């Protein structure tokens, strides 16, 4: 077996070293991710350039790439806060957030990879305490949930914008009150509903009574006008007209006997 040329060993060693270097230098950024470049011999974290986007990248083997998820993420929080009258309320909420892509280097430099625990959770809890403290338990339970949700979102967003994080939405999923308070509020709401229904029935009955009075007054006024217009002559003409119609009926047998006191004929007949 022939011996390998002396130049072959350096070539093999160089190839192995090259493979190792390429392996350490090749970086693949996945879907929905971005990479922050850290230059070991050049001022550390790169903050004045956009982060590495999705796909394949080659970096110097002595540098590092820290990969972050930049798609929208969700944080679910259960928070115990105090209402305006000092009662403990539990708020279940969800925050939808994502790092600001262009500022990912600054985010890594100032907060690091655990920015969720360092900034987002404290910001949400602080905003929730501030907002819920303005309302009573009854308002939190019934009419002000949307307002609370919007106010927590606005206050949290103001904090996170300064920390290179974009808050897309905050949702209040549930508001839990102490059982005794909840039952008292439900009883009060039920009583208010029954009171409103009773008032509605009273108003409806009153309107119906007013309608009947108006109709009765209208009929009385009509009868009064009609009575005033019916003279003896008109009544006599109407009687003659009715008598003629009865006489013309083929099913009637009419006998005129004489006339009454008013001068009207007296008619007897059968079908």
UniProtKB/TrEMBL annotation:
Q: Which InterPro entries match?
A: Band_7, Band_7/SPFH_dom_sf, Prohibitin
The UniProt keywords, alphabetically, are: Membrane, Transmembrane, Transmembrane helix
For this protein, the record's Pfam families field holds: Band_7 (PF01145)
Subcellular location(s) of the protein: Membrane
- Domain Band: start-end pairs: 24-189
Q: What membrane topology is annotated for this entry?
A: Single-pass membrane protein
User: By what name is this protein known?
Assistant: Peptidase
| Organism of this sequence | Neotamlana sedimentorum
What taxonomic ancestry is recorded? Answer: Bacteria, Pseudomonadati, Bacteroidota, Flavobacteriia, Flavobacteriales
